Amino acid sequence: MIDARILLLISSLLTCSSAFDIGLSTKCVPIPKEMAMCNDIGYSEMRLPNLMGHTSMADVVPKSAEWHSLLQTGCHPYARTFLCSLFAPVCLDTFIQPCRSMCIAVRDSCAPVLACHGHSWPESLNCDRFPAGEDMCLDTLSKEYQYTYKEFPKPTCQGCPLTEEFFSQKTVLEAFCDNNFAVKVKLAKKKTASGIYEYETEGPVEFIKQGLLLPYDTRTMIEQWLLINENCAQRLTRNRPMVYVIAGDIQNGKVTVNRVFHWQKKDSQHTLASRRWRHHKC
């Protein structure tokens, strides 16, 4: 069954006159629970073969799972729509492809994240293979949504800053002055059923210096930074949850972490620096 909301979404994203048909005999099948990427997307049945050329769920499920970590980074708000239109196309009379413009938008935002993990944008998702708009296809985001999306600070791929274990109150205050934001947060990791690690924050995020961070989005931003910079995340989370003060900058909508201090209860330097910061002049 297809949720009325997804039909509205599809109709709002479609452009022009005709749809795409791969010329093969296809069938409608339920989207399996194991295909987590495309669960709860507004419809429960997909067509096989799909637009990636997969003919069975034995191919679709593991191949789609390879994209789970990328989607968790939030590299583009329509990355999931784009990928599910290919791996689990909605069961309508004809195939509806993503437009080339949607592919380009997702690629330009998500390819740098793949590159951070040592992978390039796959040839199977070459944007030239998708219609330029003269055929019916899923179009890009509205201009209003694109503008709003650009306003949210987004984490970037970067080298991992050293974790500072021993420091003075003066060092911490200088770090607060030199950076746009500073937060205290507990970082942790958990292993999923599929054997991959996910990184998360535990408890509240405490703002020491808010800067350009958005309070309601900061937790997600930190978790996305950990996923993008997984080598750094592994070092920070180790074998148990750890508390850190993270200081960084936001420039042109990009978040960079510059200083990381390991917060230990027995060390009073952080506490004193945080208290003094309220009245400190850089």
Automatic annotation (TrEMBL):
<feature type="disulfide bond">
    <location>
        <begin position="38"/>
        <end position="84"/>
    </location>
</feature>
<dbReference type="GO" id="GO:0005615">
    <property type="term" value="C:extracellular space"/>
</dbReference>
<keyword id="KW-0964">Secreted</keyword>
<feature type="domain" description="NTR">
    <location>
        <begin position="160"/>
        <end position="282"/>
    </location>
</feature>
<keyword id="KW-0675">Receptor</keyword>
<protein>
    <recommendedName>
        <fullName>Secreted frizzled-related protein 2</fullName>
    </recommendedName>
</protein>
<dbReference type="InterPro" id="IPR041772">
    <property type="entry name" value="Sizzled_CRD"/>
</dbReference>
<dbReference type="InterPro" id="IPR015526">
    <property type="entry name" value="Frizzled/SFRP"/>
</dbReference>
<keyword id="KW-0732">Signal</keyword>
<dbReference type="Pfam" id="PF01392">
    <property type="entry name" value="Fz"/>
</dbReference>
<keyword id="KW-0221">Differentiation</keyword>
<dbReference type="GO" id="GO:0030154">
    <property type="term" value="P:cell differentiation"/>
</dbReference>
<dbReference type="GO" id="GO:0017147">
    <property type="term" value="F:Wnt-protein binding"/>
</dbReference>
<dbReference type="InterPro" id="IPR036790">
    <property type="entry name" value="Frizzled_dom_sf"/>
</dbReference>
<keyword id="KW-0807">Transducer</keyword>
<feature type="domain" description="FZ">
    <location>
        <begin position="23"/>
        <end position="140"/>
    </location>
</feature>
<feature type="signal peptide">
    <location>
        <begin position="1"/>
        <end position="19"/>
    </location>
</feature>
<keyword id="KW-1015">Disulfide bond</keyword>
<keyword id="KW-0297">G-protein coupled receptor</keyword>
<dbReference type="InterPro" id="IPR001134">
    <property type="entry name" value="Netrin_domain"/>
</dbReference>
<dbReference type="GO" id="GO:0060070">
    <property type="term" value="P:canonical Wnt signaling pathway"/>
</dbReference>
<keyword id="KW-0879">Wnt signaling pathway</keyword>
<comment type="similarity">
    <text>Belongs to the secreted frizzled-related protein (sFRP) family.</text>
</comment>
<dbReference type="GO" id="GO:0035567">
    <property type="term" value="P:non-canonical Wnt signaling pathway"/>
</dbReference>
<dbReference type="GO" id="GO:0005886">
    <property type="term" value="C:plasma membrane"/>
</dbReference>
<dbReference type="InterPro" id="IPR020067">
    <property type="entry name" value="Frizzled_dom"/>
</dbReference>
<feature type="disulfide bond">
    <location>
        <begin position="103"/>
        <end position="127"/>
    </location>
</feature>
<dbReference type="GO" id="GO:0004930">
    <property type="term" value="F:G protein-coupled receptor activity"/>
</dbReference>
<keyword id="KW-0217">Developmental protein</keyword>
